Protein backbone atom coordinates (compact mmCIF):
# COMPACT_ATOMS: atom_id res chain seq x y z
CA UNK A 1 0.00 0.00 0.00
CA UNK A 2 1.28 3.47 -0.90
CA UNK A 3 0.72 6.85 0.72
CA UNK A 4 -0.26 10.02 -1.20
CA UNK A 5 3.30 10.64 -2.47
CA UNK A 6 4.01 7.06 -3.69
CA UNK A 7 5.95 6.27 -0.53
CA UNK A 8 5.24 2.95 1.15
CA UNK A 9 3.12 3.64 4.26
CA UNK A 10 5.65 1.77 6.40
CA UNK A 11 8.28 4.41 5.52
CA UNK A 12 6.35 7.63 6.19
CA UNK A 13 4.38 8.90 9.15
CA UNK A 14 2.13 11.94 9.41
CA UNK A 15 1.85 14.15 12.49
CA UNK A 16 -1.42 16.11 12.04
CA UNK A 17 -0.87 18.56 14.94
CA UNK A 18 2.20 20.04 13.21
CA UNK A 19 1.30 19.11 9.61
CA UNK A 20 4.63 17.26 9.41
CA UNK A 21 5.50 14.24 7.30
CA UNK A 22 8.28 12.11 8.80
CA UNK A 23 10.30 9.82 6.54
CA UNK A 24 11.47 7.12 8.94
CA UNK A 25 14.14 5.50 6.81
CA UNK A 26 15.08 3.99 3.49
CA UNK A 27 14.67 5.81 0.21
CA UNK A 28 12.13 7.59 -2.01
CA UNK A 29 12.34 6.86 -5.75
CA UNK A 30 9.88 9.42 -7.17
CA UNK A 31 9.62 13.21 -7.04
CA UNK A 32 8.29 14.26 -3.65
CA UNK A 33 5.75 17.07 -3.10
CA UNK A 34 4.74 17.78 0.50
CA UNK A 35 1.90 20.15 1.51
CA UNK A 36 3.32 20.79 4.96
CA UNK A 37 6.64 20.16 6.70
CA UNK A 38 9.11 17.34 6.01
CA UNK A 39 11.43 15.74 8.57
CA UNK A 40 13.75 12.86 7.71
CA UNK A 41 15.54 10.22 9.73
CA UNK A 42 19.33 9.95 9.23
CA UNK A 43 20.59 8.54 5.91
CA UNK A 44 17.33 8.82 3.98
CA UNK A 45 17.88 8.97 0.21
CA UNK A 46 15.47 10.81 -2.09
CA UNK A 47 16.51 10.17 -5.67
CA UNK A 48 14.64 13.02 -7.42
CA UNK A 49 13.26 16.53 -6.76
CA UNK A 50 11.79 17.46 -3.37
CA UNK A 51 9.27 20.33 -2.97
CA UNK A 52 8.07 21.24 0.53
CA UNK A 53 5.50 23.97 1.16
CA UNK A 54 6.70 24.31 4.77
CA UNK A 55 9.96 23.57 6.56
CA UNK A 56 12.43 20.98 5.25
CA UNK A 57 14.62 19.30 7.90
CA UNK A 58 17.18 16.81 6.60
CA UNK A 59 18.91 14.73 9.26
CA UNK A 60 22.56 13.69 9.05
CA UNK A 61 23.71 11.94 5.89
CA UNK A 62 20.58 12.39 3.74
CA UNK A 63 20.71 12.67 -0.05
CA UNK A 64 18.48 14.50 -2.53
CA UNK A 65 19.21 13.50 -6.11
CA UNK A 66 17.60 16.56 -7.72
CA UNK A 67 16.51 20.06 -6.75
CA UNK A 68 15.17 20.88 -3.28
CA UNK A 69 12.60 23.67 -2.71
CA UNK A 70 11.18 24.73 0.64
CA UNK A 71 9.77 27.66 2.58
CA UNK A 72 12.58 27.29 5.17
CA UNK A 73 15.22 24.62 5.64
CA UNK A 74 17.73 22.96 7.93
CA UNK A 75 20.23 20.87 5.98
CA UNK A 76 21.88 18.41 8.36
CA UNK A 77 25.54 17.50 8.61
CA UNK A 78 27.02 15.48 5.75
CA UNK A 79 23.89 15.83 3.58
CA UNK A 80 24.15 16.00 -0.20
CA UNK A 81 21.87 17.80 -2.67
CA UNK A 82 22.74 17.04 -6.29
CA UNK A 83 20.72 19.92 -7.79
CA UNK A 84 19.84 23.45 -6.64
CA UNK A 85 18.62 24.41 -3.18
CA UNK A 86 15.85 27.05 -3.27
CA UNK A 87 14.56 28.42 0.05
CA UNK A 88 12.02 31.24 0.46
CA UNK A 89 12.91 32.21 4.04
CA UNK A 90 15.79 31.27 6.40
CA UNK A 91 18.32 28.49 5.84
CA UNK A 92 20.74 26.64 8.14
CA UNK A 93 23.45 24.48 6.55
CA UNK A 94 25.30 22.24 9.00
CA UNK A 95 28.84 20.83 8.94
CA UNK A 96 30.02 19.14 5.77
CA UNK A 97 26.84 19.37 3.72
CA UNK A 98 27.16 19.73 -0.05
CA UNK A 99 24.99 21.35 -2.73
CA UNK A 100 26.27 20.49 -6.22
CA UNK A 101 24.71 23.57 -7.82
CA UNK A 102 23.53 26.93 -6.49
CA UNK A 103 21.84 27.92 -3.24
CA UNK A 104 19.20 30.66 -3.37
CA UNK A 105 17.64 31.98 -0.17
CA UNK A 106 15.03 34.70 0.40
CA UNK A 107 16.08 35.24 4.02
CA UNK A 108 19.13 34.80 6.24
CA UNK A 109 21.64 31.95 5.87
CA UNK A 110 23.80 30.38 8.60
CA UNK A 111 26.65 28.18 7.35
CA UNK A 112 28.71 25.85 9.51
CA UNK A 113 32.26 24.65 8.62
CA UNK A 114 33.10 22.55 5.52
CA UNK A 115 29.93 23.37 3.55
CA UNK A 116 30.36 23.13 -0.23
CA UNK A 117 28.28 24.83 -2.93
CA UNK A 118 28.83 26.26 -6.40
CA UNK A 119 27.28 29.64 -5.48
CA UNK A 120 25.09 31.29 -2.84
CA UNK A 121 22.61 34.12 -3.29
CA UNK A 122 20.73 35.44 -0.25
CA UNK A 123 18.36 38.38 0.25
CA UNK A 124 19.39 38.70 3.90
CA UNK A 125 22.53 38.23 5.94
CA UNK A 126 24.95 35.31 5.48
CA UNK A 127 26.79 34.14 8.60
CA UNK A 128 29.70 31.78 7.91
CA UNK A 129 31.42 29.93 10.73
CA UNK A 130 34.81 28.45 9.86
CA UNK A 131 35.97 27.55 6.35
CA UNK A 132 33.58 26.58 3.58
CA UNK A 133 34.02 26.14 -0.16
CA UNK A 134 31.52 28.38 -1.92
CA UNK A 135 32.82 29.91 -5.15
CA UNK A 136 30.53 32.95 -5.30
CA UNK A 137 28.48 34.63 -2.55
CA UNK A 138 25.95 37.39 -3.23
CA UNK A 139 24.30 38.68 -0.06
CA UNK A 140 23.04 41.84 1.60
CA UNK A 141 25.60 41.35 4.37
CA UNK A 142 28.32 38.75 4.95
CA UNK A 143 29.61 37.94 8.44
CA UNK A 144 32.57 35.55 8.70
CA UNK A 145 33.26 34.02 12.12
CA UNK A 146 36.44 31.98 12.74
CA UNK A 147 35.88 28.43 13.91
CA UNK A 148 36.58 28.02 17.63
CA UNK A 149 37.88 24.62 18.66
Number of strands: 18
- pLDDT under 50 segments (min length 5)? none
User: Structural class, judged by helices and strands?
Assistant: mainly beta
Share of β-strand residues: over 45%
Indicate the percent of residues in helices. under 10%
Average predicted local confidence, pLDDT: 92
What number of structural domains do the residues give? 1
- Please give the radius of gyration in angstroms: 15 Å
Seen as an oligomer or otherwise, the chain set is single chain
Sequence of secondary-structure elements: EEEEEEEEEEEEEEEEEE
**In DSSP terms, counting alpha (H) and pi (I) runs of 4 or more, how many helices?**
0
Largest sheet: 18 strands, mixed
Shape: globular
Tell me the span between the first and last alpha carbons.
49 Å
Notable traits:
mainly beta, single chain, 18 strands, 18-stranded mixed sheet, 149 residues
How is this structure best described in words?
- By secondary structure, the chain is mainly beta.
- It has one domain (12-144).
- The protein is 0% helix and 54% strand.
- Strand 1 and strand 2 form a beta hairpin.
Layout of strands and helices, then pairs:
Blueprint: E1 12-15, E2 20-23, E3 27-28, E4 32-34, E5 37-40, E6 45-46, E7 50-58, E8 63-64, E9 68-75, E10 80-81, E11 85-87, E12 91-93, E13 98-105, E14 109-111, E15 116-122, E16 125-129, E17 133-138, E18 141-145
Amino acid sequence: MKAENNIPTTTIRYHPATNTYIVCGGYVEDNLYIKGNLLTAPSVHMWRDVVVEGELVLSRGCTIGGTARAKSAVIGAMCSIKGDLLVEQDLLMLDGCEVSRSVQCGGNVKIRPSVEAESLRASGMVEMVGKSQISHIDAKKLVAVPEVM
